[in-house]
Amino acid sequence: MTTPAQALSLILARIAPLPAGLRPLPDLLGLAAAEDLRSAAQVPPFLNSAMDGYAVQAADLAQATPIHPVRLKVLGDLPAGAVSSHVVRAGEALRIMTGAPLPEGADTVVPVEDTTRGEAWVEVRKSLREGIHIRHAGEDLQVGQLLVLAGQGLRPGDIGVLAAAGLPTVRVHPRARVAVLTTGDELVDVAQQPGPGQIRDANLHAVCAQVTACGGIPMPFPRVPDDRETLRGVLRRALEADAVLTTGGISVGDYDFMKGMLEELGAQRVFWKVAQKPGGPLGFWMLGGRPVFGLPGNPVAAMLMVEEYVRPALRKLMGFARLHRPRAEGTLEDGWSGKAGDPRTTFLRVRVRREGDRLLARLTGPQGSGILSSMLLANALAVVPEGVERIEPGGAVRLHLTEEAEDH
Ligand code: AMP
Ligand code: MG
């Protein structure tokens, strides 16, 4: 059987980022830059005022105090967006608004709060250091300055900088369109009252939400009954997507058709079954150049598999450089004991809290793979390697912090 680490590297080795294209700024949030992005402009583009006030020569104000203010002649008004042809000389001032270009001759801006406004004059009550309250051309960004690295996900702040830097379009990788198929005769729609032997389809919603959460576009397909011909048709249509996720029918039950059908359609098996608990029967195929994940039917297992394997794969497909959630060492407060001689890695759903520089983890409840409610409180997975049968209360455990952004 494939180990979790092998499974992940087998998957990632087969995935290449989707082709990049130029997209406008309003479309960029959450997408990965496909190349290093450099400023096309100097920001600010010109010397300008950082305050509403008066452009002056600081030397004029050397003696200014509240009791003996200095009176300057006002040459005119300069709103932001306008340019002045006035030259400010000794004894003169130009009324200036934040962002307006500093007029020739002036070296400093007096904030309006430190002045008294007259008819054609202004009194300044305070001396000022030369050069204060002005912003120099290029003090924020230089032409050619590196702003964003290839593979970085774009956040609102990045997009603001790109706009100021004169980049109306940017080369990015697209979101992955991900077909989500749930299978099983027992499944009914959430809004429906399940009849005898039926259950509500939790996976469709859980898995679609996970796809959205990692930046993909889920394409939910109509539920597939345990019927080979229906499955064949739906799988064919699902190949319009960039990746395919199926749940259920992947094990060795009499109605588990997924594996056989994928291979009948020409899918190349990379592996089937991972030595882990919960969720052994994960299969991974390539079909028509697309990754196909056969996830277990069990909702806890399916979601865990998406978190551990599908999410890094989709991130790689979408061009992100960082694929993996932060790893950390923590303390398992309540301890755990497993089966002796179990050759599988166990993933425990835990709630982690920080205490100083320590991470304290508690199990979220019963850890059976059918216990969906264990997902409710979880904010991390504790990973117990094969061969470890027991963790004493307060023992060390390896954590995957599943609510923090990928850091490697
Ligand atoms: P399977 O792998 O198809 O045998 O499914 C394993 C278990 O997961 C069974 O108890 C199924 O009823 C359950 N299951 C399968 N698919 C779903 C689903 N979409 N939502 C909730 N439970 C499911
Ligand atoms: Mg089934």
From TrEMBL:
Keywords: Magnesium, Metal-binding, Molybdenum, Molybdenum cofactor biosynthesis, Transferase
Record's catalysed reaction(s): adenylyl-molybdopterin + molybdate = Mo-molybdopterin + AMP + H(+)
SUPFAM superfamilies linked: MoeA C-terminal domain-like, MoeA N-terminal region -like, Molybdenum cofactor biosynthesis proteins
InterPro entries tied to this protein: MoaB/Mog-like_dom_sf, MoaB/Mog_dom, MoeA-like, MoeA_C_domain_IV, MoeA_C_domain_IV_sf, MoeA_linker/N, MoeA_linker/N_sf
Gene3D superfamilies for the chain: MoaB/Mog-like domain, MoeA, C-terminal, domain IV, Molybdopterin biosynthesis moea protein, domain 2, Molybdopterin biosynthesis moea protein, domain 3
EC number from the UniProt entry: 2.10.1.1
Keyword Metal-binding (UniProt): yes
A GO cellular-component term linked to this record: cytosol
Domain MoaB/Mog: 179-316
Names of required cofactors: Mg(2+)
Superkingdom of origin: Bacteria
Keyword set includes Mitochondrion: no
GO biological process terms, semicolon-separated: Mo-molybdopterin cofactor biosynthetic process
Pfam family, one: MoeA_N
Pathway this chain belongs to: Cofactor biosynthesis; molybdopterin biosynthesis
GO molecular function annotation: metal ion binding; molybdopterin molybdotransferase activity
NCBIfam families per record: Glp_gephyrin, molyb_syn
Function comment: Catalyzes the insertion of molybdate into adenylated molybdopterin with the concomitant release of AMP.
Family label: Belongs to the MoeA family.
Name of the protein in question: Molybdopterin molybdenumtransferase
Source organism per UniProt: Candidatus Geothrix skivensis
